[in-house]
Amino acid sequence: MGSGDMEGISLSAGSNTFNVLKNDQSNTNTPYEAQRDFASVLKESLNKVNETQVASDNLTTKLVNGEDVELHSVMIASQKASVTMQATLEVRNKVVEAYQEMMRMSI
Questions:
Q1: How far lies 48's CA from each of 17, 37, 43, 63, 65, in Å?
Q2: Please, which residues have CB within 8 angstroms of residue 74's CB and are 6 or more apart in sequence?
């Protein structure tokens, strides 16, 4: 690779895709900008989790009310909501672990 080449890792969760780039050049973001960018990505991700939960609830309600909804669509939406929630909880657990580990470090 050349000095200006970038390696990229793309993480995809449903319709939400995150790109993590490694750049040979120094990062010019200020801590404020990095915090703001992280907060916006986190907020967007949590909104996507909420959307899958709401979609699952809506389809389940329609099924219970006897509306014309196919059972497999309801089950798929339910599983998507479950998986996204479990993934979110695992990420949260890892963040809490990392925070606790940092608090135990001596300076």
A1: 11, 17, 9, 23, 26
A2: 56, 59, 60, 62, 63
Contacts of 7 (CB under 8 A, 6+ apart): 1, 21, 22
pTM for the whole thing? 0.65
> pLDDT of 23-66, one tens digit each?
444 557 898 888 899 889 989 999 999 999 999 999 999 999 99
Closest C-alpha to 26, from 2, 1, 4: 4
Amino acid identity, residue 64?
V
DSSP helix, strand, coil percent of the chain (3-state; round to 5): 65, 15, 20
19 touches 7 (CB < 8 A): no
Joined together, the tokens standing for residue 70 give 């196919």
